Amino acid sequence: MSESKSTTPGLSATLGPVEAFGQSIANVSPTFTPTLNITVVVAFAGFLAWPSYLIATLGLFLVAWSMGTLARRHPTSGSFFLYIGRNFGPLSGMLAGAAMISAYLFTGIAVIIGAGIFLNNMLEAMGLAVHVPHYLFYAVFTAILGYFAYRDVKLSSRLALILEALSVVIITAVVIAAVVHHGTLIDPQQFSFNLADMSKVGPAMAFAIFSFVGFESAATLSKEIKDPSRSVPFIIRATPVVAGLFFAVIAYLMILASGDNVKLLGSSAAPLVDITRSLGVTWLAAVIYAAAFLAAFSCALASLNAASRLIYSMGRYRFVHSSMGAVHANHGTPHFALGVGAAVMLVVCEALVPAAPLNAFGWTGTYAAFGFVLVYLGVALAGVREAFQFGTTGTRKAVDSVLGIGGALIMAYVLYGSLYPAPAYPFNLLPYLFAASLLVVAGWYVVLKTRVPQVLAGISTMDLD
């Protein structure tokens, strides 16, 4: 790649490894798994929920390995847009950037909707006959998100980490209390399985992987992290391992605390609340919803930060309007990109007000997942290509290639599993909507190639972040 640089001010490196880790862990939002996501995994796998999470952890680590290698070679805000674009051409990069922006924005939208659910459930659990209107909540919540993201990325990353850590501590304490009440840590049911039972792990693992999405988002802050070539690869690889171990342990403990009632746990809309009923402490439900609300805020904040950095990078490379590449003179944040991201999140949330919140949460979360899995697949393949192009030794080249191919195969399986058999309406429409959005992006690529072809060449010849 050429050493050509942008002459306009860019982002400054002010973040340490703590803030970078906060970005990734908050985007994963470990609290969402025990409060909501775990029910689907238990419904598929039953007593094999915890092995499903361990296998998913291994699969995500393979993808994370390729991401870490690419992050070391390309420490840019554009991250996935540039990882894939520099390996497979500007069209692939543009599609990857658009897919990842939509993934982060729709993750943010889903957790904003989830936060509204948690808030009203918390108020109800506290005995308060108050219902916050969704349209008002979405507006206020998004405005607060936008303010923190615009004001200071270091503050927003630290806040996201603190809130997520607090919610994880609360949730873990509740689960441990339920296990202590149960009276034992050993559950023979969860260790007695045979080869026939292992057939349940495949479908469960496909959904379990969705609990990890966002682990890579520290890469989007690479231009703002001190020594990104060292810290970002480590964080990207460590986050799915830390999160995966938490998921596996918490799944085991929740099944144990439920009295091995996997049927109830797999069909529950509020699994932790159902478990705490066995303790006879009704006020714990309010505590759980409060923890989930804090986690939703931290995840939405991390999602907005990540999406805005990709929009910013695409603006710097003129794949979108150049104003998106501007940086605020005082706060050092990509304020126009943040504004666009927050506006999209708010508009979609408000458009979904007529729908049942749980339905809207499911639609937007599923839509986001397509972007993540597609880009993860592309990154794994890019890692394999660069292993042959830049591998310094035969051993390192072999390791990077084998792990990259393994990650690509797992992501291809997850993508296939999310499409076939076709899900029920309206989830069966979401893949087509996602594909249609990529066709629109491809159309914009044709416009750029026709009018300003030199812009497309910049992805591989210049460093504009």
UniProtKB/TrEMBL annotation:
Its main location: membrane. The keyword Transmembrane helix applies. GO terms for cellular component: membrane. It is a multi-pass membrane protein. Keywords: Membrane, Transmembrane, Transmembrane helix. Residues 24-391 form the Amino acid permease/ SLC12A domain. InterPro entries: AA-permease/SLC12A_dom, APC_superfamily. Signal peptide: none annotated. One of its GO terms (biological process) is transmembrane transport. Pfam families: AA_permease (PF00324). The chain crosses the membrane at residues 36-65, 95-119, 125-149, 161-181, 201-222, 234-255, 286-312, 333-354, 360-382, 402-423, 429-448. It is found in: Membrane. PANTHER family: AMINO ACID PERMEASE (PTHR42770:SF16), AMINO ACID TRANSPORTER-RELATED (PTHR42770). This is Amino acid permease/ SLC12A domain-containing protein. It comes from Acidihalobacter ferrooxydans.
